Protein 1
Amino acid sequence: MRDTEPHRLVHTGRRWYLIGWDTGRRDWRTYRVDRVRPRTPTGPRFTPRQAPDVDLADYLSRGVSTAPYRYQARITLHAPARIAAERVPPTVGVIEAVDGYTCLLHTGSHSLDELAIHVVLLGFRFQVHEPPELIAHIRGLAARLTDAVG
């Protein structure tokens, strides 16, 4: 059980999360609301802290889509950000517009296969910038796929 100073509720499109200050870890944390059990009676009063980010929805999206994973990927998608955002839920990745035709996808996974398959299935041309392990893994997959058909 954690003691938290709640700050704000934020919705990702699928779930509600509480952003709060974890007094034990002395850091900001995100908590799925469906897993939170309030303390009764309520805990001690506290002075509200400065939020960890101005855009808490973006902060939450980064926290649940990239930060907790072994591999954190940065991928250019050759698609406008608004189109890519229709296919990438905020719990899966953060879309950052580059210009009117391309955007960056920040996403993560514990599996290189999962990252490779996910980005391919989005249906856009893309370029992987990092991590280097993903670049090498996709090269290996491409060679195996080429061998399978040729």
Protein 2
Amino acid sequence: MPDDSQPVAANQDDALVLRQDTGAIARVTLNRPKAYNSLSLEMMRVLTATLQEIGQDQAIRCVVIEGAGKGFCAGHDLKELRSRTDRAFYEEVFETCCQLMSTITRLPQPVIAKVHGIATAAGCQLVATCDLALADDAARLSTPGVNIGLFCSTPMVALSRNVPRKRAMEMLLTGEMVSAPVAAEWGLINQAVDHAGLEAAVMSYAEAVASKSPHVLKIGKRAFYQQLDQSLDEAYRHTAQVMTENMLARDAAEGIDAFLEKREPQWTGE
């Protein structure tokens, strides 16, 4: 486990994405520190494949995404984008980015962003897409595309689903950095914590999540995102069915019995 006073160190390997499992928690590290972990096309492909692999791993109950080096993620690789001028390449880049974000949302395990340094553009989108996010109180987040003639349209999707409309538009139209404490106040992240305590805070969340039934985490996360786009009546109908199915699960019976019997539950994942 990395030292709790430092961001994850860059691995000497050339791997774009690193995975280290700690019990039921998968630690996934973006590993392009010299480029502030900017999301090249290949990096997005590797990260998506890594997450899909984790999604099939029944031993993992929670995922933490972090960045090597001085920052979390600076967004798309602008040098790579300017190396090409063809529509097909740009479509592939942004479709791959959308697939990555959808993979996180659809992953059965909850995903936590551990943010330090900067999280800008698609990096901010990544933070907003994760189910939970904690940041070093010196971290800064932004959607600065407007400053370089490239409006942050895909980051806008995740951003606008996390913060109030006026705040989202403020970030999108000005491109200015938002401090971690302000991001927490707006709801973009869960907490801004002292740098020395970031690792402990993230692991506290991760361990709390990982202690729950993986079956319940899966159906609960899926239902949360499904009901967001439904009307009030549709959402209640849908979640009533989800709870009915949940009550029929083995882990629901075990959890309720354990609570009534004042003992720790033994989850089966069913």
Protein 3
Amino acid sequence: MSSLIVGTDGLSRPSWAAQDPLMRDYYDTEWGMPIRDEQGLFERVSLEAFQSGLSWATILRKRDSFRAAFSQFDPELVAKFTDADIERLMEDAGIVRNKRKILATINNAKATLQLREKGGLVEFVWGFKPIDTPQPETLEEIPTQSPESVALSKALKKEGFSFVGPTTMFALMEAIGIVDTHLVGSHRRGSSGVWA
């Protein structure tokens, strides 16, 4: 059975992207497109960490608030956050107020700056691009992690990052185009230009 739904516009999307206009727009314009700038990638790493245990729709609805709260995810600014900033964030109803995830974001900003000495976050993460990408026809066929996401998770932890488990890193790899898990038959399959 296909996991694709044909919308009123005639385009095929997975069920998770077919109903909610916000999720549909995200799917149609952002998800799976390459992110190759440090700030953009740091934002995605941060938001994937906040998403852990929650739905992506929840994070997406709060994304503007997250950006405002975390200085547009500029790692140089976030790395300088103080105890006062942590208190401010814990009072901010516009974001997910999880102290461990807030501390991880600040910690990961510092680790991002350190990684510049080894070529930078973008080169580091994209270095885990696999030789090929899944060809799922149903949502059930989409893996939740891969040997590359396990390796990326371990490598980032070694560099001082936290909240970067293998499943979270696979979601990151999907979101930024390192793997293409758009369902075969989706109007977005192959749209990243990374995979033919």
